[in-house]
Each structure stands twice: as C-alpha cells, then as structure tokens.
Amino acid sequence: FILLFADGSMFFVGMLLTAVAVCAARWFTEQGWRPVSAVGSTIGILLVIVSATPVPLWVYGVWLGVCVSALILSTRNTIDASNQIVARVHRTLLVLTAGLSLLLCFLELPYRGKPKISVSPGAVIYIVGDSISAGIGSKEQNWPEVLADSTRLKIVNLARAGATAQTAFAQAERIPRRQSLVIVEIGGNDLFGGTKSDGFEKSLDALLARLRSDGHRIVMFELPLPPFCNALGRVQRDAAHRHGVTLIPKRSLTSVFGVSDSTLDGLHLTQAGHDALAEEVKGMLQLSE
To answer: Scanning 15, 49, 105, 233, which has its CA 20 to 30 A from the CA of 157?
Structure first.
C-alpha cells in the first residue's frame, strides 16, 4: 500500500476520486448522500497531495482551488435556480474540476512509461550510483553484474555505497570513453540525508552536465518519493529535461521493492532484489545491429 504512494499510482486514484465525488455531489439531492461526496472528495484530495507527484506547486494550487470551490457550491443545501450567474459558475467549476483532473493525469502518464534503450552489441554501459547499485558489501551479486551475465554486455559499475549527487561527480570523471551509455541511479542518500532541494539541484545539474560534456547518452532512475518530498522530484525532472536525459519511471524501482524478500532493510537489495532490478532494466534494453 505504501509503495502505491511512492510509485505515483495514488495520484491517479486521488484525481479520479476527487473529480467523481465533486461532480456527484451536484446530483445527489438527498441530504444523506452529500456528506458521502464531501468525504470522498476530501480523501481524493489527500491522496493526490500525499502521493508526492512532482507537479509544480502552482498547478496543485489551481486544481485544489477549483475543486474546493466546486465542492462548496455542490454541497450547499440549496442552489438558487433563479440565480443564473451562480448556476453558470457552478457548472463551469464542475467542468473545470473534471477537465483539470483528466488533464493532469494525461500529463503525468508519460512519466509512467518504460523507455526503450537501444544498445549496440559491443557497447559499454557505465553505472553511476549508490548502494542500490553497488550493494553494501555482502555476498550478493549486484544488479549490474547480474545484468552483464544475462545479456553478455560489458557493464562497468562505478557506483559507491553512500554516494550522493555531489559525490557521484567523481564517478562520472572515471568514465574513460566518450559517447557511452550511462545509467544514473542516484538521489536516495540526498533524499534520506536531508539534502535541500536547491543543493540537490546544483549537484545533479553539475553531474549531468559533466556526463553530457562527453557526449554520453544518459538514462536516469526517477526517485520514488515519500509524502511531501515533491521538491526533489521536480528538481530531477527539470534537470532531465534540460540535459536530454531519459527517465526510468519510479515505478520500476518500487516494483522491485515490492518483490517478496527483495530488501534487507526496506531499501538495500537482497539477491532477489538485485535479480529483479536486473530483469527490470533488461526489459528496457534493445540490442541493435
């Protein structure tokens, strides 16, 4: 259930529930049904907010203002039918509630799709990351090693346990070949270490700029986000857009965390977790001639 928030699924559930509940309140004339609509829309709004989907704050503000305004008019004991202005405003707010909810879902959908990553047979793939990719010193074979064995691709794992966006810059400088494929899995330690969004933005921007300066193709895991951590997700998406980075949706990582016995402590991967993540990435690779 928690992972449904982390992977963004609850954003869509909340949007749909809010739109349906707000609009339904208009037609539920029985007094007993109106509180049900109010509770449903409130739950929907809370689900959207807690989902931590990195939509700009002003967009959240506009959507929330429209929803609340429509709900207030919908749950009034009476709406003066002779007041055409009020009735027209009410209808407009209902349309806006449904329209904005659907539009925001539509705009979020591209961040759910898994990319297709073309790789030539002789290519070298470099991994820049933290303990999710490096492991934590146990005997497990980490996912880049599992992926290399299953695809026979050459994969150089530069990841280091405890790495942040700032310290990962040193990993980027160790890539000797230009115009390579680089998979970036970074940000978890920034997230749980309390790095401020502006500091994360500066470090991530420098890291991606360094990789782009050597002409690398960059693929980056999007961070699963706990509630109210939208800012780091917005930073990551904005940086990906600026530097032409392909994002792997956050549901890819959360799906691995949801595998039975996939983690040692809820975060660091067991062998089952590394195997699952290797399969997840393998499914995105397309070997070209």
So the answer is: 233
pLDDT at 137 over 80: no
Question: Measured over all CA atoms, what is the biggest interatomic distance in the chain, rounded to whole angstroms?
Answer: 76
Query: Cβ contacts of residue 248 below 8 Å, gap of 6+?
Result: 114, 115, 219, 220, 221, 222, 281, 284
- How far apart are alpha carbons 120 and 180 in whole angstroms? 11
CA distance 15 to 13: 6
Beta carbons within 10 angstroms of residue 145's beta carbon: 17
Residue count (the chain)? 289
Non-local (6+) Cβ contacts of 15 within 8 A are: 44, 48, 101, 102, 104, 105
Residues 93-121: pLDDT tens digits?
Answer: 888 988 999 999 999 999 999 999 999 87
Are the beta carbons of 241 and 208 closer than 8 angstroms?
no
User: Under 8 Å CB-to-CB from 143, ≥6 apart: which residues?
Assistant: 133, 269, 273, 274, 275, 277, 278, 281
Q: 50, 227 in Cβ contact below 8 A?
A: yes
Instruction: Measure CA of the first residue to CA of the last residue in the chain; give whole Å.
Output: 42
Q: Cβ neighbours of residue 146 under 8 Å, at least 6 residues apart?
A: 274, 275, 278
Nearest to 243 by CA among 196, 275, 216, 209: 209
* pLDDT one-digit tens code per residue, 185-241: 999 999 999 899 999 999 999 999 999 999 999 999 999 988 888 899 999 999 999
What is the C-alpha separation between 150 and 284, in angstroms, rounded? Answer: 14
Of the candidates 40, 101, 106, the residue with the CA atom closest to the CA atom of residue 66: 101
